[in-house]
Amino acid sequence: MTDKSDQIADLLRQTGLAHHQAFIETNGEDAEWASWYAGYLLERLPAILGKDFTSEQLTELLIGLDKQQNADAPDAEWPEFYANQMLSRYSSGA
Q1: Which residue range forms the structural domain that includes residue 20?
Q2: Up-side HSE of residue 29: CA atoms within 13 Å toward CB?
Q3: What confidence score (pLDDT) does residue 68 get?
Q4: Nearest alpha carbon to residue 34 among 64, 73, 10, 70
Q5: Residue 60 CB contacts under 8 Å (≥ 6 apart), including other chains
Q6: Could you give the CA distance from residue 56 to residue 44 in angstroms, rounded to a whole number?
Q7: Based on the number of CB atoms within 10 Å of its own CB, is 23 exposed (0-12), middle (13-18) or buried (19 or more)?
C-alpha cells in the first residue's frame, strides 16, 4: 500500500471504531451506517484525497464500495479495499 492508502485505511479503521463506540448499545449495528461514516469522514478524507465531497456523495461512495467489496473481494479487509478503490478513483498521485 502507498502512504496515502495507509492513511485512508487508518482513517477508515478509526471511523469504524468511533461508529462502533457511538452505537455500542447495538453492538455497532446501524442501518444508516454510511451516512454516519460520511459525516465523520467529511472533514478528514478530502485532505488526504485532495477531493471535496458532499455528504450525499460520500454516502453513495461508501454504499457503492460496500457492494463492490461484497461482490468482488468479500474476504478482503474492508479498510484497505476501500482505500485502494478511493485512490484509484480520485487521486492522481496514488
Answers
A1: 3-90
A2: 3
A3: 98
A4: 64
A5: none
A6: 15
A7: middle
8-state DSSP, 53: -
pLDDT digit string (tens) for 40-94?
999 999 999 999 999 999 999 999 999 999 999 999 999 999 999 999 998 764 4
The domain tally of the chain equals 1
Cα Rg for the chain, rounded, in angstroms? 13
pTM: 0.88
Whether the Cβ atoms of residue 51 and residue 87 lie closer than 8 Å to each other: no
Round to whole Å and give the CA distance between 71 and 52. 27
Backbone angles phi, psi at 37, to 5 degrees: -60, -45
